[in-house]
Amino acid sequence: MSIPITYSLMRYLAAKKSVDDRALNGQVWQHLVAALPRAAPQQPLRILEVGAGIGSMVERLLVGDVLTYATYTAIDKAPALLAEAHRRLGQCADERGFQVDENPQEQLRFRRVGQHITVETEAIDVAHFMAREHGRRAWDLLIGQAFLDLIDMSTTLPGLCSLVRPSGLLYFPTTFDGDTAFQPESDAEFDRAIEACYHQAIDQRVLDGEPSGDSRAGGSDWVVFAGANGYPADEAYFLHDIIHTIELVLTGHPHLDAERVGAWAALRHAQIEQGALVYIAHQLDVLGRMTASMGMNRTKKP
Length: 302
Description:
Layout: H1 9-23, H2 26-35, E1 45-50, H3 56-63, E2 69-76, H4 79-95, E3 99-103, E4 107-112, E5 115-123, H5 126-133, E6 139-143, H6 153-161, E7 164-183, H7 188-203, E8 206-207, E9 210-211, E10 222-224, H8 235-250, H9 258-273, E11 278-290, E12 296-301
Parallel strand pairs: 1-2, 1-6, 2-5, 6-7
Antiparallel strand pairs: 3-4, 4-5, 7-11, 8-9, 10-11, 11-12
Helix pairs in contact: 1-8, 3-4, 8-9
């Protein structure tokens, strides 16, 4: 595909779903499924997802028939993304043979024999949600996909963990772990400089006056390359968006020449159009269980 004229977070999230589906570590996923407590109509599984976006994780759980009786709370700052989540989930559930009910309280209910799943969505900042819910509700499972590297973990993660019941589960897949590679190399030294400065920019990111990023947090590898018929699904757009983001972040960086950054981005966009660019981002999927003392036993699977 040619270089996009405009970029959209919604399209980016939709485009990266196939990348995530391929990247998610199957062993960690099976450990998660096996560790979920048994649910019943009178005692549904309580799941909280932060940064839920367009509902890709809920969709993945529905398609995999992981949930029987569950109440799924999905929060995100962007109302438009959650509106798209409603649309996509309704379509997915209908295709899977669920009876779909929607009510004005931003809820979706999916029902079929042996399954009753309620999805509650709310457009809210994580910090405000934690402050409001602390001591009020506790969840059996906390999910944050590609989330830990977007927050200051030392201040945000303890608050999130406090929302999980003792012995509850924490699942943080596709969390960036500080290693990016683009192939083929154009200028090896400048490529390394681009990658180092981009990681530094992640570490120094500030949102609403607070630190909000960590390039080494713990996900599973994104590996994107073209086959005989080009890039799968909408992954060419995904790559264009990645290059566009890096260029935006690094233009004006004190240690990089702006013209060279622009030339580097133009070359990478051209390689995508040719089906020649390979993109790798190292990540780790993280699955943990809360202890009674609110500590966390953590397992990482590469």
